[in-house]
Recover the amino acids of this structure.
């Protein structure tokens, strides 16, 4: 069987340097595709697109990863901007929220939100965020490790039943849970570290960066689920236009 095709959303940067070039770019750190590949999947990167195309795109994928990145615009969850919240990225916010909502409406494709991706999942379901917390960033550009405790009986708690040290880098966190979400892991300071949707669809968000560590259990579970899920049925092609009459 072909390896499941796992889409990974991308960072949208106004300036990225490589060789002699300094240009706008849609990119993702290599840890993301390596994480998928090491877990048995084939990775494909998803730059922002027209949100109306989100549902059609998902018919081509077996699984979806919403990657980490900058802060979500607080207007997306009805909050005033905290001075410590980063500048908005409307194109990325719009695209990723559309992908998440389409995935949830699909009801079958497995979905993993990583860091910002977990926060986007929460916002897509009507939840809110704490715009600044301390203690989960060691220094700019440096991951810090801390322990997360799983909640027994949840999907994450079944995958990782013991407390685990995880690589983390975030200054925002879940405040009010989105519709239907349950907490499946906590940090020692009470920060929500994982959320999920109970039910048949595989939907999980983790506040840390598993792609920066060596624990493959979460992604292997997504890939295994993607491999056994029924194939998506593409929308029927439009009928060809009639040939012109001579």
């Amino acid at each position: 069987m072909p390896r499941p095709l796992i889409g990974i959303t991308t960072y949208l940067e106004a300036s990225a340097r490589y060789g002699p070039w300094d240009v706008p770019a849609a990119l993702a750190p290599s840890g993301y595709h390596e994480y998928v590949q090491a877990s048995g999947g084939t990775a494909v990167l998803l730059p922002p697109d027209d949100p109306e195309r989100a549902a059609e795109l998902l018919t081509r994928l077996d699984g979806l990863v919403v990657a980490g990145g900058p802060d979500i615009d607080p207007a997306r969850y009805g909050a005033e901007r905290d001075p410590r919240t980063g500048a908005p990225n409307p194109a990325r916010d719009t695209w990723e929220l559309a992908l998440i909502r389409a995935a949830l409406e699909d009801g079958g494709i497995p979905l993993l939100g990583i860091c910002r991706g977990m926060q986007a999942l929460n916002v897509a379901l009507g939840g809110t965020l704490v715009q600044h917390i301390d203690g989960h960033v060691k220094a700019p550009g440096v991951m810090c490790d801390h322990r997360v405790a799983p909640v027994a009986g949840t999907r994450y708690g079944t995958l990782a039943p013991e407390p685990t040290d995880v690589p983390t880098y975030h200054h925002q966190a879940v405040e009010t849970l989105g519709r239907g979400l349950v907490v499946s892991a906590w940090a020692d300071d009470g920060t929500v570290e994982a959320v999920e949707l109970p039910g048949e669809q595989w939907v999980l968000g983790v506040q840390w960066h598993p792609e920066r560590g060596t624990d493959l259990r979460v992604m292997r579970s997504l890939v295994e689920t993607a491999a056994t899920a029924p194939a998506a049925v593409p929308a029927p092609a439009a009928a060809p236009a009639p040939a012109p009459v001579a």
